[in-house]
């Protein structure tokens, strides 16, 4: 168990940290979206009419899209979003004001919803779905690490609250690893398990294959209910969105929709898939209604789910946190950070306990793991800050060497991350303090740049209810800057262990 | 929620205080008798459960249990962090407190 815990942690720790870090940020993905897309810092109208979504629908019709996905605006995401797939396979996203229906300028960014969030579960490696499999492997190993960690912990109850920062770095690191791991154990286990359960069709497809053969669509139709009909090639107008939503709500009872998926837009066979939002329940419920877009008749509706599906939806809902519950959102954020601390301290403990011995024996193992650990921990923080800073520095519509704004932001993120790895390799142990100071400077700069480029400084953002997401991100960036500066100062004042050992001998 | 959080902090603090290791760290080698230790631990556990009851009154069952489990972890971590620095704060204050009461002069 000790061997399993040590080596699976060392091999997959860096990837696990990246997954946990991006997952933790994804808890506030819509708030980061508001920060990175200033034109969407809007207030929701007091009485929202679904008919305000018509310009978004018409934009899809004009683009001759075969289907248009319309995301219903809400408190956290106060914009009407229209998405469709183009003939060449690419996707188009357009944003609209929820009060007037007017189109908003292209924000030229993937922000958090389309970059940070998918990074959490695919590492943005889409080819052959390899990202899903790597993240799935990490999720499974995280559960194995939790179980093996409990087994190898010799004094789990006696050391339940033991954290001794005054002890040597190695001991203090292990204490912090134990506290973050043992006290956050329910969260770490549930979040890893639920991550796997969400994508059960990818990771455990054999049961579906056994019943449905290779016809995954048939499984989807039976499990979630679906309806389809071909276009008639005759033009027709869509009835009022308010009428469509009223008919859908009549089929599933209480609750508003979170999206309206319009198939065959502009055609006489147009129909709308309305999906009930899961704002008021923990589970990620599936209540779908198909409404005829011309007559307003109910074409099909999802049936009550079977117990296995209800359990799967509940566990998935635990992970997705689509519910409206701010206390729980903040608790998830805090526990996500505890997960990051758990992984980082595990890696650090491995390095600390081997550094001196590897140096004496001329081995490079501890040095390599330390460089990778620095790049995965402080490096990904620097890359995230650089991503946010590039978003505030680059003007809308800018292109460099044929690269658009979206591509430039992503390249900045990855180049900054690579640079932190090179720096960690060259600087060795000193890289921790150096990179912490860089995090402090970058996080503070991001807040300053947001104020300069948008005028929404922290005090102004706090004063307006609809700007609280921006104020929250600014506050978190400032807190990150302060903590990183304090850590950098503490690390810079520490004597290297080999020097301390020499002084002790003298 | 604030009441539940206060109950959880108090509950974990009592459970931590009932552990000889933590009690000794804060009170410099102080000792609690076995029955007293068990009683303190029992009250601590009761406070943790009371927090669940308080949360269940203001939220639906699923949200209450989920919030309680998450808050249970976060409050326990906060107690661990407070305990990490508490012995130093207690030590730093002790001579001052002693000089105020005049105990140091008498000894």
UniProtKB/TrEMBL annotation, chain B:
Listed Pfam families: DUF3325
Species whose genome carries this gene: Bradyrhizobium nitroreducens
UniProt-recorded name of the protein: DUF3325 domain-containing protein
Transmembrane segments: 39-56, 63-86
Entry keywords, A to Z: Membrane, Transmembrane, Transmembrane helix
């Amino acid at each position: 168990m000790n061997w399993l815990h040590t080596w699976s942690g060392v091999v997959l720790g860096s990837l696990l940290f990246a997954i946990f870090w991006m997952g933790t940020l994804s808890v506030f993905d819509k708030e980061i979206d508001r920060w990175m897309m200033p034109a969407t810092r809007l207030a929701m109208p007091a009485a929202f009419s679904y008919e305000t979504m018509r310009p978004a629908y018409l934009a899809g019709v004009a683009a001759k899209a075969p289907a248009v996905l319309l995301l219903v605006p809400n408190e956290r995401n106060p914009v009407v979003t229209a998405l469709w797939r183009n003939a060449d396979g690419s996707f188009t996203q357009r944003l609209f004001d929820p009060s007037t229906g007017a189109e908003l300028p292209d924000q030229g960014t993937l922000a958090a919803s389309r970059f940070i969030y998918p990074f959490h579960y695919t590492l943005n490696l889409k080819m052959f779905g390899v990202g899903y499999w790597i993240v799935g492997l990490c999720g499974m190993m995280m559960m194995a690490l939790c179980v093996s960690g409990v087994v190898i912990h010799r004094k789990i109850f006696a050391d339940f609250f033991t954290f001794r920062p005054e002890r040597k770095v190695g001991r203090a690191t292990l204490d912090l690893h134990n506290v973050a791991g043992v006290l956050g154990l329910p969260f770490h286990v549930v979040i890893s398990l639920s991550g796997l359960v969400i994508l059960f069709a990818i990771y455990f497809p054999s049961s579906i294959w056994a019943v449905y053969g290779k016809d995954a669509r048939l499984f989807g139709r039976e499990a979630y209910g679906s309806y389809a009909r071909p276009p008639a090639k005759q033009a027709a107008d869509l009835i009022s969105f308010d009428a469509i939503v009223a008919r859908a709500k009549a089929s599933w009872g209480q609750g508003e929709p979170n999206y309206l998926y319009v198939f065959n837009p502009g055609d006489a066979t147009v129909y709308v898939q309305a999906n009930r939002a899961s704002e008021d329940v923990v589970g990620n419920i599936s209540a779908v209604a198909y409404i005829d877009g011309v007559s307003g008749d109910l074409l099909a509706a999802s049936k009550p789910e079977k117990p296995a599906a209800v359990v799967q939806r509940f566990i998935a809902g635990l992970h997705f946190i689509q519910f409206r519950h701010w206390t729980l959102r903040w608790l998830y954020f805090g526990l996500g950070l505890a997960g990051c601390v758990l992984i980082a301290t595990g890696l650090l403990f491995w390095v600390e306990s081997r550094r001196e011995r590897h140096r004496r024996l001329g081995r490079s193992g501890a040095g390599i793991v330390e460089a990778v650990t620095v790049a995965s921990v402080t490096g990904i923080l620097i890359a995230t800050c650089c991503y946010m800073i590039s978003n505030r520095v680059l003007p809308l519509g800018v292109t460099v060497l044929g690269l658009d704004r979206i591509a430039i932001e992503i390249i900045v993120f990855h180049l900054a991350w690579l640079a932190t790895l090179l720096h960690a390799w060259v600087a060795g142990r000193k890289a921790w303090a150096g990179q912490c100071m860089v995090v402090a400077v970058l996080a503070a700069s991001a807040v300053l740049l947001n104020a300069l480029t948008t005028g929404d400084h922290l005090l102004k953002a706090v004063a307006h209810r609809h700007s609280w997401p921006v104020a929250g991100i600014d506050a978190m960036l400032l807190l990150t800057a302060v903590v990183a500066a304090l850590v950098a100062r503490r690390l810079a004042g520490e004597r290297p262990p080999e020097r301390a050992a020499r002084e002790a001998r003298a | 929620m604030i009441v539940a959080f206060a109950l959880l902090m108090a509950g974990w603090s009592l459970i931590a205080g009932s552990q000889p290791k933590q009690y000794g760290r804060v009170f410099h080698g102080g000792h609690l008798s076995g029955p007293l230790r068990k009683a303190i631990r029992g009250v601590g556990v009761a406070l943790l459960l009371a927090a669940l009851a308080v949360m269940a009154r203001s939220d639906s069952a699923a949200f209450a249990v989920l919030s309680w489990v998450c808050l249970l972890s976060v409050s326990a971590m906060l107690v661990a962090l407070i305990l990490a620095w508490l012995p130093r704060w207690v030590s730093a204050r002790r001579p001052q407190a002693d000089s105020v009461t005049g105990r140091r002069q008498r000894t």
